[in-house]
Amino acid sequence: xxxxxxxxxxEAVVRGDAALLEEDLAGFLGxxxxxxxxxxxxxxxxxxxxxxxxxxALRRSLYEPVAxxxxxxxxxxxxxxxAGAPGSxxxxxxxxxxxxxxRNYRGFPDEPGHEACAxxxxxxRRAAVAVRILLKAAVALDDIQDGSGIRYGEAAxxxxxxxxxxxxxxxxxxxxxxxxxxxxxxxxxxxxAVGEGLTGQAVDMSTRSPATxxxxxxxxxxxxxxxxxxxxxxxxxxxxxxxxxxxxAALGVAPDERxxxxxxxxxxxxxxxxxxxxxxxVPELGGANTHEDFDGxxxxxxxxxxxxxxxxxxxxxxxxxxxxxxxxxGHPKLEETLLALAxxxxxxxxxxxxxxxxxxxxERSAAYFDVTIERKGHLIDRLYRTVRQRSGA
Length: 393
Known about the structure:
The chain is mainly α. Helices cover about 70% and strands about 0% of the residues. A two-stranded antiparallel ribbon has the order 1-2. Helix 3 (about 95-105) packs antiparallel against helix 16 (about 365-390). The radius of gyration is 23 Å and the shape is globular. Residues about 1-5 and about 35-40 have low confidence and may be disordered.
């Protein structure tokens, strides 16, 4: 199936699943209260005082940064509030791709003959929490590496707690997520995702180095696009593939469907990265961050425009921003390039949705997937409309 259907009762199930994930995340955070064995030593009074100091230090240095990292909600797309709906009156609810997979392959609760498998649901619940924790860890570490002081409209973790504690919290969250997942197949999937994400981040950061910049500027257009796609598939595509692959690993989905979903999520990742790159040039969507990302040559817009006359001469070790920014912003083909790339993002999203719809077991499953994806997906369409209107096309 390729068309989105507003199937009855889907939003209630999405909200119920999202509320369950929030409960499980709260349970995870609530478990961070017990000092490890061995902290209480010596005479009773001395041990009690030592434990008190230790626990206070542990709370400030680890539990509080972790709680801030996992609990950050500001600015993220969420389901609009609905009176009487599951989870109403609590934290904003965010659908999880993990639960979409569970509903697609195990059915909806009110369907005839549906029987929930306790073991499958337990594995999926743990996987969903692990994925959310890993995504939060990625945010904390990415903000440090990119020098971003603001995330989702609030201070980044390293701004609030300092780089050492934020770095430690992000690293700790990775180990906590893998331990929480428990299921060997899910852990193996998440380990792959973590490795791929870190690999993509490393290559992306290399675009700030003189050596990689020089190689990209000397490379033909096709090689630059291939570089961007390989990096984006690992850095951003992994964020989309990780939830689904963890879920289908838990559920034992057939390899051919697993590959189809993996490819679809890769496309969504590329669409998302194009959106991120393009909004740096579109104030209507980029806001205060517009025209800031000129430290390297990782932005697809910049890589596209290097085909024309080269930028003004610059020293090999000079930061990219001083010469790249005026070159790109003053380029006669900038608007044309923005429109072409915005259209590419829309097509990538369309193809990804079509591929997922092809493996959906029901219209309700397709609708569930669309509710989950369109929280950000609609912004890709809005970006295209904005750029098209601005260019007069």
